[in-house]
């Protein structure tokens, strides 16, 4: 089979390897679509804090079961599936307390310690496989994973009905959080980005206010528009020092800031504000099964739209072109899928 191996930063080689053999508790999946995630871009550039080449990337995928291990009872050949890519120990403190997304021994398919789905086939433990309802296409199936990230972040934020919500960053995660936040009862959603086409998409998908933070000073805009009471909840979906620092400046005293973006470098922010304003900076990492199931439900029932986020699709052999397209930031790129 063909796989795309990231052997060192910015160097992906296509190689022919054996189809993985299936252990008794595993399922072999013929991959159909796999999305390129922001974190894959960090990895590609050699800037992801936890991803070390050589590795086959790819953790947002859908496919068809082509073989099942001896002990697999609930899945069958030809079934359409997606995969929850976090592989956990099941024994550490957090695993035993329902928070296996932050397992001490976390491995992530296509990220950490486990080859991913930029390959024709992948073998995964059966307990990580999840059936794809008929209403969800393979393309949409590749967006369940990022949707689960959004569901987890919104759930962790304990967002309240009617909350005024600010989302920094209108990339795929920002736009998914926006939709999930809306379904969860947000009163008003303001979303910001540097790129107009992303903001246009945000508007189409239901943003109440869009702000291009190149042409408008965001801190000032929020102060002028919302006065003293400001914003109730902020989702930082960029992971840059500037946006983190903006979030801290914008936050009303006592506000929550959800940290969803993955920072590339070590961002330096003014922690003095955290104490002084009693801000809550809350991290959100991946998801657990409930979030994944909720994501599937939202897509299946068309409560949120994922199809409009898909802007490009490339064949596996052209995966380098896909990465380069995203890095160039020229065309109107949102979610790029690899068709396998
Ligand atoms: Zn991802
Ligand atoms: Zn664990």
What does this 3D model show about the protein?
- The termini are close together.
- The chain is built from eleven helices and 17 strands.
- Strands 3, 4, 5, 8, 9, 16 and 17 form a seven-stranded mixed beta sheet that branches.
- Helix content is 28%, strand content 26%.
- The structure holds zinc ion (2 copies).
- One zinc ion is lined by residues 37, 39, 59-60, 145-146.
What is the total number of structural domains?
A: 2
Q: Which regions have little confidence, pLDDT < 50, spanning 5+ residues?
A: none
The secondary-structure class comes to: alpha/beta
Averaging pLDDT over every residue, what do you get? 95
Q: What's the helical proportion of residues?
A: 25-40%
Q: What is the end-to-end distance?
A: 11 Å
CATH class of the largest domain: Alpha Beta
Largest sheet: 7 strands, mixed
Please compute the radius of gyration using only Cα atoms. Answer: 20 Å
Ligand roster: zinc ion
Give me some keywords for this one.
six-stranded parallel β-sheet; 2 domains; seven-stranded mixed β-sheet; alpha/beta; 340 residues; binds zinc ion; 28% helix; Quinone Oxidoreductase, Chain A, domain 1
